[in-house]
């Protein structure tokens, strides 16, 4: 079902994809997409696909680990990130089966503490998502321990209704631009 819905949403959002591609192309040329190794289901790695919102010369680390993240963000990238449009290509990851719409956000390989704590609680057995319980309850503004606590809550209470609630609340968070630090 996730694959079918992701295909429909990709088709419906294709005009937005096209505009974002053109904007990135004019500002900083190719590549338009950013690929990064992430931790997925059962700790298997996969390449997450995002619109590139940062300059080509940016080190491949978590944004919060950059000394001055603002100097690396493209002018268009500021809006792309604030509206979470950089995540739209994650729909391709859903279609490929790497992700779901809802689940814990896939961690970077370098986020060893987060990955270890998720594994200890069995959270690594969930397919990662574009959005999740931790994203609507703090996103970039919460500690690793709080993120794991929220991911564990999702693991324990996972249901269709909770997923619908998370998707619904995600739209409001994105529109309000809540809890986004970069």
Task: Describe the overall structure.
- There is one protein chain.
- The protein is mainly α and 182 residues long.
- It has one domain.
- It has 8 helices and 4 strands.
- It has helices at 2-12, 14-28, 75-82, 90-96, 112-121, 133-136, 144-157, 160-176, and strands at residues 33-39, 45-51, 100-102, 129-131.
- A two-stranded antiparallel sheet has the order 1-2. The protein has a two-stranded parallel sheet with strand order 3-4.
- Strand 3 (100-102), helix 5 and strand 4 form a beta-alpha-beta unit.
- Helix 1 (2-12) packs antiparallel against helix 4, helix 2 runs antiparallel to helix 3 and helix 5 packs parallel to helix 7.
- The chain is globular and about 45 Å long.
- It starts with a helix and ends in a 6-residue tail after the last helix.
């Amino acid at each position: 079902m996730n694959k079918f819905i992701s295909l429909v949403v990709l088709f419906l959002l294709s005009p937005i994809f096209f505009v974002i591609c053109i904007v990135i192309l004019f500002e900083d040329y190719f590549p338009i997409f950013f690929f990064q190794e992430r931790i997925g289901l059962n700790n298997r790695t996969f390449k997450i696909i995002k619109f590139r919102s940062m300059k080509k010369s940016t080190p491949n680390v978590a944004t919060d680990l950059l000394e001055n993240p603002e100097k690396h963000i493209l002018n268009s990238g500021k809006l792309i990130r604030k509206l979470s449009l950089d995540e739209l290509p994650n729909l391709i990851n859903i279609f490929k089966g790497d992700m779901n719409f809802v689940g814990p956000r896939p961690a970077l390989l370098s986020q060893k503490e987060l990955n270890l704590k998720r594994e200890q609680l069995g959270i690594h057995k969930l397919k990662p998502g574009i959005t999740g319980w931790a994203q609507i309850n703090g996103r970039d503004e919460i500690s690793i321990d709080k993120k794991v606590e929220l991911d564990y809550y999702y693991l324990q209470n996972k249901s269709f209704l909770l997923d619908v609630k998370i998707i619904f609340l995600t739209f409001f968070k994105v529109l309000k631009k809540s809890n986004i630090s970069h």
